[in-house]
Amino acid sequence: MNDSLLLTTLLFFPLIGGLLLIPFLGRPVLARQIALAVGTVELLLASFCWLSATAPPPAGAPAGFFLFSSRDWIPDFGVRLILGMDGISLLLVILTALVTLVAMLVSWRSITKRVALHYLLLLVMETGIIGVFLSLDLFLFYLFWEVMLIPMFFLIGIWGHGRNIYSAVKFFLFTLAGSLLMLLAIIGIYLLHGDQTGCYSFALNELVKTTLPYSTSLWLYSAFLLAFAVKFPLLPLHTWLPDAHTDAPTAGSVILAGLLLKTGAYGLIRFGYPLFPEAARACGPLLMTLAVVGILYASWVAYAQTDMKRLIAYSSIAHMGFVALGIAVWRPVALSGALLQMVNHGLTTTALFALVGMLDERAHSREIAVFGGLWGKIPRFSFFLLFFAMASAGMPGLNNFVGEFLILAGSFRITPLSACLAFLGIILPLVYTVRFLQEVLFQTERQPLLLADINWREGGFLGLLALADIYLGLHPEPLLAMVRLPVALLIGVVP
Fold this sequence. Notes:
The chain is mostly helical. The chain has a domain at 285-495. The chain contains 21 helices and two strands. The protein has helices at residues 3-19, 28-48, 87-106, 115-134, 138-147, 149-159, 164-197, 204-207, 214-231, 240-247, 250-275, 277-282, 284-303, 308-329, 332-363, 374-377, 379-392, 399-412, 416-442, 456-474, 477-491, and strands at residues 67-74, 79-85. The protein has a two-stranded antiparallel sheet with strand order 1-2. α11 (250-275) packs parallel to α14.
């Protein structure tokens, strides 16, 4: 399979699979089965791309990319279908396929209305997210950036609960405001590049050659940074996230935490720093400050939460603060740690939201005060909750520890104060995690609840995520090796 066919198939197969569900809108069982088959094939396709990582780069590919495809789309405006995969995008594409498959499985029994539409939206969103990770043309990137927002809006609005319409609109307005500013910046650099060279193009490898006055670069970078900061989310642009998680269905929370937050970090790494290096360096201290404050603030607020989903939502803000710190330092060790932490957080938080969704499905409550003594009642569920909570808290030997350690080690040489303050963001999660586990698993039962333990379907994907957490905690080198060359090229330490 040539590069163009492989990348195109990888990108559009979920969309085609979603469209195949339209004739089965009234047949939920068949719709689930088709969606699961499409998600499984997509994961296999994404994993197959790993075999291409050692192949010689194709002709015309940017340095570091082992899969590359470029063809005309709207030539009059310099828009091309440019897709590429390096080690960074490979890891995130595999993560996307895996997390989407988990979202399908966790919805197997909890979604009972408009089932085919639910799975169709999941598959459309998968295409949008993969498009973000593969696009090397800014017009194409922005198109997929917007595409992935629409399904999430409907997932929260239709299958959510509580103030689901409010949360869906808030999510949409926050992300749309940042996206429109980024669109203006994309148009701006497109026009400036055309004026300088006479060639109007949205291609990333062309736009990085644009010479920009410092003030102009700063304004354009600020627009990109704001759009990506909303998606991280960074303080004070984080307020949409806890509401969206609280009112979203379990699959929505899984996709939101496991994938959508990563698109902001990826956009900053792939586009923000390469297009505006001087402005990015100048704004580095600001990004470090927001990251550290976000880590401490979100960890403190997480301790006060009584709803399990909101607790995990605020912990996600803190964990993504570590990713922001690693990016802001922009050094090989810290940036490699940030990329590894993006994958680690995606795996661990996906499992935690899935577990809370299972508990909500059985007990119709997410309040910590409702539960107690689960270790003796549903031991398999309790084991997985304990395992993934410890992984999220940074237990040595599990995956999150490695990413956070690399970020702190890489940051300490550049900004010791930020690294020391961020270290508190490792201690605070231990406090609220131990409190949470004590009350839910080991505290005396507060009220009699008839709860079923996890079944084979739930145990299957939780076991797979647990094995991935252990493997990355003990042997992260394959992932670090995969991003080593792209990171070096981004930072500019490779001749």
